[in-house]
């Protein structure tokens, strides 16, 4: 083994793994001959080579029959999904279909933990899944009332095998090394008929936030926690998380009357220490404004989250649904950064900033709905519901900032110091109600009507204190405010729904009224405004046969400003970038037309096209002075539009799985730069190729490549376009032919070309390897993982928004190794 792969600190772990591999039969009181033969035979018996993985269309659902796809022992659902044509799963567990992200994952129709699909895909074994269904899931309100509101959630549903619903199963994994890294996860699940009980646990400091059994992803999306808004912005980015979390799930449906109960609870504790450096380039009318910043922070978060729904069917003509949700979270943050700004390479400012903040978030919401069916005409449905919520978000903290400003000759011109304490609180109460009525007009026609009304009361307070005599007790009136607002929303619509043999469609035409009243309690002034908008909506599904379908969707929606955008509050947590609300802001109106074509016959072909346009879009006006100080404010502006297209084709050629993808995106958005409007146009085009093969109990591999080109132009400074190529290559190979062993190697290579905005190429090769051995009839597995063998930094990202281009470097885990043991168990209930 090359010396760079085996530093001295690794050797102890390798010796321990060799002891586990060679000495395990003796430890468990069996000879090697007694152990190898039955495990090897069982391995041969369960692994088969899949012949046809093409999905089948069943109405609105695309279904993969995975019951005959018996994978290798202990394969996860994530590995199973990665083998299915049309579905793509990234290294961080994100699942996409035809370029669209899967946002919800169900198990037998039930939502487990409702946070992130990786909570299930990396914890459940593939051997327990009979079918995987892909659907655009309708909203809870649509399913309850029978009136389609047009909202859809891209969802995967895992249908368990009957044999998996006759007992309990689970697994426990624990791993560590001599570098003080650790990762421990546990799953216990019981599925009996229609009753579900599940518990998850996690403790890790290697970047795992979603009960992940595969270590080392550089992405740090928090899957078991929801983000707590921090108006002081005391976070440097993502970083390497230390995570402690648990989740409990219960669901049951009683066959006698189909009463249904589902409840979930989650707790999470997250600690991150992100370290980032970034370069931001903004195109201005006569120059480029370049800002360099280095930041670090310590962020800690605790969260308790619970939610439950109960459906009670009193008789065949009526039903009652009750649901509630509770979230209690708190966070502490310490932040520090240094930075500088320059116009055309001439330094104009430098700064250093420290922030300490504490946040608390408490949300409570509930809904009660009642449905009545006509006894003579069951599809005649009347529903009434009421909902309420209470949201309380409070922040307290300290801001210290020292800013230096320079003359054109480089000499110091002035200094500005900010040393303040802030108290920010927002309390919101919402109460609303909805009535709806669905009337059948014939065998395939339904007329629906709904009316909804909601009243929102908000109180917001911001107090800023300057430091004097060693205490923060001098209130600053210009940075303090107290507002009270009342909002009344009303909407009503008629829907026409048709269900036919070949074509289904829903047409909705409605109107929405919005009334807003805001009172400034400091100066006793009142602001009012009122608007009325149309709410058109159309869904058309054409299904000519069992292997193809065409979907068309049109939406018209109001883009409503939030309370923080409306209130003229100055936020100076970053004195060089001050934000200001706008009480004159008006709602925008967006229109989207989406077309999709799917054909699953000799190959799986998907084509999608999306057109979007927004009038009076809520954009940003940024004023930059000669010293680089910026004030940003939301404003209404026209001219935003986008065009997206995506094509994918997957087919089997011999023993190989081949996939081809192509994508194009055009977007135009407008912003104000000082007093000028900047029209910003972005174009992205790319193509990719996927090739894979699975040879049963011998080996499997998958290779993927994607090449794209990006170009951005800003009318405010047409002489400074941004153009660059991006290439991404991934490879994964697994070897099974060594008796009792699995060997897996994966590599991800990315390259981004330098451009006028970014001075050098970026290239990263992330290479991981895992060796595992199965013991005790595959119930026990020993694993050695080596992550990031070449010790490269993959925490690099680029973003392009309007006339602003940013490149960010974030700290990630370097090279490390880990030894772990995985114990699996599966017990069936005894028949009485």
Question: Descriptors for this entry?
Answer:
26-stranded antiparallel beta barrel, mainly beta, 832 residues, six-stranded mixed β-sheet
As residue ranges, the low-confidence spans are: 1-51, 211-225
Strand content: over 45%
Beta-strand segment tally? 44
Average pLDDT taken over every residue: 84
Percent range for helical residues? Answer: under 10%
Radius of gyration: 29 Å
State the distance separating the first and last CA atoms.
57 Å
Oligomer designation: single chain
Shape: globular
Which structural category do the helix and sheet elements fall into?
A: mainly beta
Main sheet characteristics: 26 strands, antiparallel, barrel
Number of helices: 6
Describe the overall structure:
- It is a single chain.
- The longest helix is centred in the N-terminal third of the chain and has 20 residues, at about 10-25.
- The chain is built from 6 helices and 44 strands.
- It has a 26-stranded antiparallel beta barrel. Strands 1-2-8-9-6-7 form a 6-stranded mixed beta sheet.
- It has about 850 residues and is mainly β.
Q: How would you summarize the topology of this molecule?
A:
Layout (H helix, E strand, L loop, with lengths): L7 H20 L4 H15 L9 E3 L2 E5 L11 H6 L4 E3 L5 E3 L2 E2 L2 E4 L2 E2 L6 H4 L7 E10 L1 H6 L6 E9 L5 E11 L5 E11 L2 E10 L36 E14 L4 E14 L2 E10 L2 E29 L2 E26 L2 E28 L7 E26 L5 E29 L4 E24 L2 E5 L5 E19 L3 E18 L4 E10 L2 E9 L2 E12 L3 H4 L3 E2 L5 E4 L7 E13 L3 E12 L1 E8 L5 E8 L2 E14 L2 E18 L2 E19 L4 E16 L7 E14 L5 E12 L9 E14 L4 E8 L8 E6 L2 E7 L5 E13 L4
Parallel strand pairs: 6-9, 29-33, 32-35
Antiparallel strand pairs: 1-2, 2-8, 3-4, 4-5, 6-7, 8-9, 10-11, 10-44, 11-12, 12-13, 13-14, 14-16, 15-16, 15-43, 16-17, 17-18, 18-19, 19-20, 20-21, 21-22, 21-23, 23-24, 24-25, 24-26, 26-27, 27-30, 28-29, 30-31, 31-34, 32-33, 34-35, 35-36, 36-37, 37-38, 38-39, 39-40, 40-41, 41-44, 42-43
